[in-house]
Predict the structure of CinA-like protein.
Amino acid sequence: MKPILTEVITIGDEILFGQITDTNTQWIGAELTKLGIRTIRKSSVGDQRQSILDVLNEATQRADVVILTGGLGPTKDDITKVTLCEFFNTQLERNPEALGFVTKFFESRGRQLTEINARQADLPQNCTYIPNDWGTAPGMWFHENETVYISLPGVPFEMKNLMQYRIIPKLQQHFETPVIVHKIIRTVGIGESFLAETIANWEDNLPEHLKLAYLPQFSQVRLRLTGTGTDLLQLRAEIDEQVAAVLPLIQPYVYGFDEDEIEMVVARLLSEKSWMLATAESCTGGFVASQITKYAGSSQYFVGGVVSYSNTVKVNQLGVKPETLGQVGAVSEETVRQMAEGVRLKLGANVGIATSGIAGPDGGTPEKPVGTIWIACSTEKQTVARLLKLGPYREQNIQHTAVHVLNLLRQVLLDEQ
């Protein structure tokens, strides 16, 4: 079956100026993948006529579907419709159905329809009008020379609803699409290159229609196995077979699959044991607690935390011994152990975790350079500490540390099951 290829183009100076973040292309790519339609390129252009024409001409050469978002407002700076008329060698005309829709839209809100707003109903003559139930800018569908062109508003809420309820059903009717299945294996604690070496033989023997991608981020590597075919059940069975074959090679590093995040996995383990967690954070400044509490229901397994940035708080609130700080300092195994034990006991939790280190960009010494970080996990039975040697960048160090301490917590919870 011939693959259906898509190019997604976002239009707007505000994207190029960095004034807004383009989330549309990511969302569209994910939704098209579910249909078996593969996105081969994403690009952004400003509100300039020639730039839009150039990218349309390029996309026509390689894509079966070209999706544009943005530039459909009623003001003079929104030029997408006029430029599409030039591209298709046609002209705007007021669409009666679109005019009726936008009129009702304003009447339902007790507002008068102005001529500027009425221009939302001016559409290229060769397009199929796509009603927008969530705003005034309509969607447009063009079919020229075996290529489908779709123009959508750039407002994410409007775009997503138009895609979900109008465009996707229309694409499914128009194209016979292959099946695409993704399976993600989530690992932590092993680098991308080491992981690749470990599974090299398995990867080399994958069937031609199954592809592997490595997606590293903050001490984690996601292995994405993608299969393309015509039979959904058969494809899923093949992928499951390959996952079963690779897991024994990497099991110590696997913490979840697909949408699992490390904090979600930890939350499930805590809930299964009916355990409460407490956190003591120095170098991470509360970031670990924020990761734990970003999901609803976290009060069922998280009792609270202490951001012990100063030594005074470490001593007075967590029970860290002053002589420990005096002899080995705040960034040490002894200190982080006492922090984890102290917060567990002080807050009445079943398990406590702690972080203490030099996040950077300054504060390091020859003995303890920037990126030197200790983490610990304490239960009634044991306290485990580990040394991390990270890099010079503060934000990355904080995020890496959070992943590592949550993974340490995961390992301890599994160990005590």
Remarks:
- Residues 262-415 form a domain with the Maf protein fold (CATH 3.90.950.20).
- The first strand starts at residue 4 and ends at 11.
- The chain has 16 helices and 17 strands.
- The chain has three domains: 4-174, 179-257, 262-415.
